[in-house]
Amino acid sequence: MKRYDTIVIGAGMSGLAAGIRLAQFDRSVVILERHYLWGGLNSFYKLAGRRFDVGLHALTNYVPPRAKGAPLTRLLKQLRLRHADLKLGEQRFSAIAFPGARLSFSNDPTRLEEEVAGAFPNDRDNFRRLVERVRAFDLDGVHAPESARAVLAEELSEPLLVEMLLLPVLYYGSPSEDDVPWDQFAVLFRSIFLEGLARPEGGIRTLLDLLIQRYREAGGELRMRTGVRSIRVENGAARGVVLDDGTELEAERVLSSAGWVETMRLCGREAPAADVGRLSFLESIAVLDTPPAELGHDAATFFFSTEDRCRYRRPDALVDVGSGVISAPTNFASETPLPEGLMRLTVLANHGRWCALPEEEYRAEKERAADAAVASASRFVPDWRPHTVFRDVFTPRTIQHFTGHAGGAVYGSPRKHKDGETGIDGVYLCGTDQGYLGVIGALISGIAMANKHGLAGALAR
Ligand SMILES: Cc1cc2nc3c(=O)[nH]c(=O)nc-3n(C[C@H](O)[C@H](O)[C@H](O)COP(=O)(O)OP(=O)(O)OC[C@H]3O[C@@H](n4cnc5c(N)ncnc54)[C@H](O)[C@@H]3O)c2cc1C
């Protein structure tokens, strides 16, 4: 029977990053991925002769090359990648729109400060203090759980400003409804507003190709279409895995990016029902006959809410189009212009409702929901439906199918495991449910968990 030092479950961002670190230190490592494509939640596909990214709106944490101490700089060093390899094109600006106010921000944090001072003069100094509090927050420290909504309400006097700052943070990384723990808010606020947004030229494929190349150069083994049916646990410790086809592989340790609830199930245990994430999305991708800027839409990313209190909860209906995020890839700087205009629109969706629909109804509802979402967004931006030449729509059902995440929960379980421990010797978590979210967060998580659980001895020498 083949024996490895580490088996990594999943070839998403965290699994690939963990694999690279372990292989760089000559550990025998295999990444097992159930699907035929790598990338997990951020993969790519071809449809009707066009290439699409699955989810990519933007990479967070943008900093220029060699910026000291920044997560992106540290990540590139650990994976032995160059900043230039990512071909990052910065956002020109992004915006947050509510019925009562609009704020824009860019990769220069003073823009948001000025916008807040203009729209909420009473909170000008309070906002500065909030930014200082976020900057001073020790991300590696141990903190008592605190609600970000409560901290914001304490720091700021304008409830609308609280809602406007929460919306992007919730949409880009909260596994909890209507709120997020303050420590996660601090991480996300920094990565979105104090660092910034950029898009790799060529989309997610540019990053994924680099990761796969590094992994293979370092000698790592990658097995696609290789699902893990169960993790073998004996006397409270990992022994290896059993694959979907019944083959057994042995390993010292298993590093799983499948998620907390999902990994427990693989170990034959059941996590509490409350640990299953409730938040999932419907996303539509529209190819336009003209760049969105020609229609008057210049923002790279655009967060909107049709009500002054943003709702970020699992809807009772199939979707809630009262809020959403629009991403326009052509509104990021790029040396090679994209061949066609593209608009992505993400809104909240109910996983159970989508999964209960018979096939024909499912298809019809997808189109209906995508139309309703654009109609709602068009309160703030030009309606792009008359310019749409092709559209693809995916739902929470698609997300669960391609990633295995219970409930199609994009940001996983509300219960995170910062140390990666599962309570079973040799079984560790990386990625979404370790607690770092988004593409950059997942890469950082993979590196951190490989360093901690697979390389501690080597790195201490
Ligand atoms: C619509 C959408 C838009 C997004 N937009 C952005 C964005 O613009 N910017 C950003 O930073 N982030 C974005 N994200 C979030 C980001 O994609 C994720 O946070 C990140 O990619 C998670 O990576 P991961 O490695 O933790 O998990 P995943 O990507 O979920 O990877 C887990 C992998 O494990 C595999 N797997 C699971 N179980 C098994 C098993 N039993 N056997 C074998 N393989 C298994 C899955 O198939 C999957 O490939 C978006 C997500 C979605 C869905």
Number of E-type strands: 18
Domains, number: 3
Ions and ligands: flavin-adenine dinucleotide
Q: What is the CA–CA distance across the termini?
A: 31 Å
Task: Give descriptors for this structure.
globular, 461 residues, seven-stranded mixed beta sheet, 3 domains, single chain, FAD/NAD(P)-binding domain
Topology:
Layout: E1 3-9, H1 13-24, E2 29-32, E3 44-47, E4 50-53, H2 71-79, E5 88-90, E6 94-98, E7 101-105, H3 109-119, H4 124-136, H5 148-155, H6 159-171, H7 182-195, E8 198-200, H8 204-217, E9 221-223, E10 228-234, E11 237-243, E12 248-256, H9 260-266, E13 280-288, E14 301-305, E15 319-327, E16 341-349, H10 351-355, H11 359-377, E17 388-394, H12 396-403, E18 427-429, H13 438-453, H14 456-460
Parallel strand pairs: 1-2, 1-12, 2-9, 6-14, 12-18
Antiparallel strand pairs: 3-4, 5-8, 6-7, 10-11, 11-12, 13-16, 13-17, 14-15, 15-16
Helix pairs in contact: 1-8, 1-13, 2-13, 3-4, 5-6, 6-7
This protein binds flavin-adenine dinucleotide.
